[in-house]
C-alpha cells in the first residue's frame, strides 16, 4: 500500500453554505488536510481545477444546482483518476447510492448522521484503502448478502462472509487482517476469492451490486 503524504489537498463541493462553512472550518484546521477548493457547484469546481492544486479527496454533494454530484462523477473520475470521491447527501436512497458507487465513488455519507470527526475519519479511511459508508448505507448493502433459511448452500464460506461484511463496513485489507487475526496476504487471498466468486472487479462494484440486490 502506498504511504500517504500529509497534508493532502481536499475539495469541498457543497451548496448549503452552513454545511460548507462547517466542513471548511473543521477540516481546514486538521493537520492532515489542506482545503484547496471550496465551492458550491460542479461548474465552479471545474473552474477551480484549472487554477488550484488537484485534490486527492473530494467531498461532493449529491444534490447541487446545475449538474448533480452523481452526474459529474464519470467526468471527474476521468479528470482526476487518482482522487477518491466521497458523496454526501441527506438521504440514504438505495438507487442513488447504487448509481454513485457504480460511477466510481469511494464513499457515501449521510450528512445529518455524520459528525465532523466522522467526516475526518471517512477521509482517512479512503486514504487507507477502505471505503467510507454511513452505517445505514452499509446495512442496506449487507442485507443483500443474508441468505434465506430455505436457500441452497451458501456460495461463500463462513470466513469469506466475515471478510465480505468487513469490506462492506469500509475496512481496508490491513484492518481486516488485524480484526480477524490473519496475515495481510491471507486476507488478500480471501478478497480475490470473493471477487472471483461474485464476479466483480472492485470494491465499488461489489458495494453497488449489493445495494442493487443483483448478486
TrEMBL record:
The modification 4-aspartylphosphate is found at residue 61. The keyword Membrane does not apply. This is Response regulator transcription factor. It comes from Hymenobacter aquaticus. Residues 9-126 form the Response regulatory domain. One of its GO terms (biological process) is regulation of DNA-templated transcription. It comes from the Bacteria. The keyword Manganese does not apply. GO terms for molecular function: DNA binding. CDD domains: LuxR_C_like, REC_NarL-like. Keywords: DNA-binding, Phosphoprotein, Transcription, Transcription regulation. Residues 149-214 form the HTH luxR-type domain.
Amino acid at each position: 500500500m502506498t504511504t500517504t503524504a500529509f497534508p493532502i489537498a481536499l475539495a469541498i463541493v457543497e451548496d448549503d453554505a452552513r454545511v460548507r462553512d462547517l466542513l471548511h472550518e473543521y477540516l481546514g484546521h486538521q493537520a492532515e488536510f489542506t482545503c484547496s477548493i471550496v465551492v458550491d457547484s460542479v461548474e465552479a469546481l471545474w473552474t477551480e481545477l484549472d487554477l488550484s492544486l488537484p485534490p486527492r479527496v473530494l467531498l461532493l454533494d449529491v444534490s447541487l444546482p446545475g449538474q448533480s454530484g452523481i452526474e459529474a462523477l464519470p467526468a471527474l473520475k476521468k479528470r482526476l483518476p487518482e482522487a477518491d470521491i466521497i458523496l454526501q447527501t441527506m438521504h440514504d436512497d438505495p438507487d442513488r447510492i447504487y448509481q454513485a458507487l457504480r460511477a466510481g465513488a469511494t464513499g457515501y455519507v449521510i450528512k445529518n448522521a455524520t459528525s465532523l470527526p466522522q467526516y475526518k475519519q471517512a477521509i482517512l479511511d479512503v486514504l487507507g484503502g477502505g471505503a467510507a459508508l454511513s452505517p445505514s448505507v452499509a446495512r442496506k448493502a449487507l442485507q443483500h448478502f443474508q441468505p434465506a433459511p430455505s436457500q441452497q448452500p451458501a456460495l461463500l464460506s463462513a470466513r469469506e462472509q466475515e471478510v465480505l461484511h468487513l469490506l462492506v463496513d469500509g475496512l481496508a485489507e490491513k484492518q481486516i487482517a488485524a480484526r480477524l487475526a490473519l496475515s495481510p496476504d491471507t486476507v488478500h487471498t480471501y478478497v480475490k476469492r470473493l471477487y472471483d466468486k461474485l464476479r466483480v472487479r472492485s470494491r465499488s462494484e461489489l458495494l453497488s451490486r449489493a445495494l442493487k440486490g443483483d448478486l
